[in-house]
Amino acid sequence: MQLAEVLKLKLNTTDEISLAFGETAYQYMLACDDISRYVFDHDLLLNSVKLSKELYSHIRETFGLKSQMAQSAIRTVTARYQTVDTQYRKEPYTFKADNKWYRIPRDIRWLGKPLHFHRPQADLVRNRDYSFLNGGRDISINTLSKRVVCPFTAAGSMGKFLDGTWKFGTAKLVKLKGIWYLHISATKEVPDFQRDDVKRVVGIDRGLRFLETVYDSDQKTCFVSGKDILSKRRKFDSVRAQLQSRGTKSAKRALKRISGRENRWMADINHQLSKALTTKYGPGTLFVLEDLEEVSTDARNFKSTQQTHDLRSWAFYDLETKLTYKAHESGSEVLKVDASYTSQRCPRCGRILGENRDHRMHAYHCDKCGFTTNDDRVGAMNIWLLGTLWVSGSDSPTFNIQAQGSV
I need a labelling partner for 157 at 20 to 30 A (CA). Which of 17, 37, 132, 308 fits? Predict the structure, then answer.
């Protein structure tokens, strides 16, 4: 299994080095924008070999990029288009007509115009465009004019990344609020997590009323309230609506700032949630989550427009990603299970009936055995059970309404 992390290095530059970085990043951006237009105008050609054959000389002559940077610019553009294609395929176009819901599959051909590269930055290849010097205290970076050496400040300890077990990949040179940073991808091979490694199972039901409802092998339940989070997000929505109604250039700039601020805030919340879980339960934990890929993108699953917005815009995938990374780092694992009937099934007798759940009162009452509890807790308990079934040897545990009381 591969562990991945991004090193964020703050570059301590002089005025001369800053100018060199600025020129390099700007020309790289222009080259990517030019390549993007070519890709769009040539039937979304994403073959890097063919693009290199057609554009390599043009890129070098027009934008002054060095050999490796010209190749990197082509890969940057193709990767961006492939990402958009993946996003389209995951989210079909959904609409309602004649009181029926319809879903139309989408792919990159839905793009109406070329992808636009508007932020000066550059992708740099390890040992060709950047390398560490002086025992990892300085870094050498290639620019259009010459190679420069500058010290840096790392966000966290650099020691573990220089022990020979980590492999450095492509780095991204970016400028944020007047300061240059180098973001470097780093990977490390760690042993695969096995069923025999599981010491405890933790079921996690994600939502908005409770960001997390956690049920563990000790039969203990923990609720993480989302009330304050939801309130703050509604404030963001209110400010965003006011700015959108103005439509001025300054309002659009403010919208961009607010969007970035909200995204960073949401990411920080998910970081805190995932860190708290891995710290509390430690190595050997199997964290079990519902697979929300289909549930969270289909408007037919929501009861109101506001609920549609709230659920779609909260970063559930970001939480999943952060928890997965932190789990791997601490010797644990994340398992995604089928979400079918996890909120409708009685954890005690296995009865599956949607009417047993009272959404308004947030309660669950089984009409068969009388089991009563919080409805989010029911979800976490059933998710936990599916995790224990995986540990017992079931590769795809799920609940079957045709065989009530069984799995």
Answer: 17
Show Cβ contacts of residue 343 under 8 Å, excluding neighbours closer than 6 positions. Answer: 205, 357, 375, 378, 379, 382
State whether residue 237 is helix, strand or coil: helix
C-alpha to C-alpha distance for 311 and 296, rounded to whole angstroms: 7
What does the pLDDT look like over 304-340, one tens digit per residue? Answer: 454 444 444 467 888 999 999 899 989 999 999 999 9
pLDDT at 191 over 90: no
List the structure tokens of 179: 């300061």
Q: β-pairing, 200-206 with 179-189?
A: unpaired
CA–CA dist 291, 381 (Å, integer): 15
Residue 82 CA to residue 76 CA, distance in Å, equals: 10
| Cα distance between residue 38 and residue 44, in whole Å | 8
Residues 119-128: pLDDT tens digits?
A: 999 999 999 9
Place of tokens 């961006």: 80
- Gap between the Cα atoms of 360 and 314, Å rounded: 21
Tell me the sheet residues that pair with 333. Answer: 286
What is the dihedral angle through the alpha carbons of 391, 397, 402, 404, rounded to the nearest 10 degrees?
30
Return the H-helix or E-strand segment holding 265.
helix 249-281
Angle at 73 between CA 72 and CA 78, to 5 degrees: 95
What's the CA angle centered on 224, arms 232 and 276, to 5 degrees?
Answer: 105
3-state SS, residue 60: helix
Provide the percentage of residues in the chain whose pLDDT is more than 90: 68
